[in-house]
Specification:
By secondary structure, the protein is mostly beta strands. The chain is about 0% helix and about 50% strand. It has no helices and eleven strands. A hairpin with a 2-residue loop joins strand 2 and strand 3. The protein is elongated.
Length: about 130
């Protein structure tokens, strides 16, 4: 599974973190979290809990990437049907060594099978956290 976006630790568990108008929400797909103060969000199987930053143990943004022949590529997306991950870079020298296609202005894209690459993650602290717990 490729993770991308904002996450938070609460009650020693990791949740996706959403915000709207300076209010923060934990998101879960586990109906058992209804016991922990989560409420059902609409008709889909998503449960949310309003939370303050002070209640969180940690908060960070996950930025996935992959390395190909020493070049770093950001994960742009993943197609479950084909099993391919789209990787993007703005390094102009990559086109001399790897078969990439132009993508937007000054960017290059390559699509490869997820099984053919190792996806790594950068965790960038957010909301005043320093990343000591990650």
């Amino acid at each position: 599974m490729i993770r991308k976006g904002r996450f938070a630790l609460w009650d020693k568990r990791e949740f996706e973190l959403a915000s709207y108008q300076r209010q923060y929400y934990l998101q879960s797909a586990d109906p058992l979290d209804l016991r922990n103060g989560f409420v059902k969000n609409g008709s889909n199987q998503v449960y949310i809990k309003t939370i303050s930053v002070e209640e969180l143990e940690d908060a960070y943004e996950v930025i996935p990437y992959g390395m190909i022949e020493g070049y770093r590529f950001a994960v742009e997306g993943y197609d479950e049907k084909t099993g391919k991950v789209a990787l993007v870079t703005n390094n102009p020298f990559v086109k001399e060594r790897i078969e990439v296609r132009p993508y937007g202005e000054f960017q290059y894209i390559i699509e490869i099978l997820l099984e053919d690459i190792v996806i790594e993650e950068d965790r960038v602290p957010i909301l005043g956290f320093d990343g000591l717990y990650t």
